[in-house]
Amino acid sequence: MQSKYKVGLLRLNLLLAALFPALMVASAHDISEAMLLGLAAAWLAISAGLVEFSHRRPPLVPWQLLPSLLLGALLWSSAERYPFWLWAWAALVMLPQPAWMAALNALLAAASWAWLARLMPIEQSLAAGLVFALLLALGLSRARRLTPLHGQARGRVSLEPGLRLWPRARLAGDLARERGRAGRDGTHAELLLVRTRRRHLWRVARQLCEMTRRFEHCYRLDARTLAALLVCRNAAQADSRRETLLQRLAEVERVRAVPLPQTRPLAEELRALEQQTAPRTTTRRAKPNAED
After folding, report:
1. Helices (H), 222-264
2. What is the band of 5 on the pLDDT scale with cuts at 50, 70, 90?
3. Using CA atoms, how far apart are residues 94 and 153, in angstroms rounded to an integer?
4. Mapping DSSP to helix (H, G, I), strand (E, B) and coil, where does residue 51 land?
5. Measuring CA to CA, how many Å separate 291 from each of 250, 279, 287?
6. Cα angle for residues 179, 182, 185 (degrees, 5° grid)
7. How many helices (H) and strands (E) does the chain have?
8. Alpha carbon 66 to its chain's center
9. What is the DSSP letter of 218?
10. What are phi and psi of 101, to 5 degrees?
11. Cβ distance 209 to 218 under 8 Å?
12. Got the DSSP string for 197-221?
């Protein structure tokens, strides 16, 4: 993971970028300017320390909002000292981001240019504005192309490094694949849904991943619900294994197990989990195999 995604190189670049505003703090004219530069350096340094391919929490908001606000504040408070920072907006709009975030960045960038334009002759401000608008348009176009790719990548990446914990978007494809494999191999495969409290979700997720086999996968469906695809030789072994697994899981409120041939659309299974009265429900095969 480390070498594949160049996490170390990205961390080094962020630390070097943090060094630049940190060195500028000493030459700041007033306390507000020093605070803004210090916050920018801190944001980059903390980002370097936390950078990892973990998607437990969305990294875009509000973490991505902070540099936009800091850059806008710095340009508005010290435009005459840092006019070259205007071009940093072109880099910010290139990042994959929600549509409202891109619109906000474009609005802040336009306001920053208008604020700086009052300090320049009219012909220079117009020329800078045209170049600046072109760079913003190119950056927004690139971000729009990258957003679907970023979403697809997030759907293929584990939510926490080292764990077989995947996002909800991946479950539908895995269900179809495991259903076909169970039919070919004559094995018993089932979907296990686990409901817990929000504050216990990640602890239960780690336990679930540790107790399942290497070829079995777990999923985070929402802030309270986890899922796992379990594969056993037959239904009797699945019952025994499920009981052992649930006895070791802590802080579980509700459980639902459904053999893959009987699974309905995921939304319906989640609705059934929500509405079931018993803490544990197991849906049996309509026609059990003789060897089961």
Report:
1. 235-248
2. very low
3. 17
4. coil
5. 33, 29, 12
6. 150
7. 11, 6
8. 17
9. E
10. -70, -40
11. yes
12. -GGGHHHHHHHHHHHS-TT--EEE-
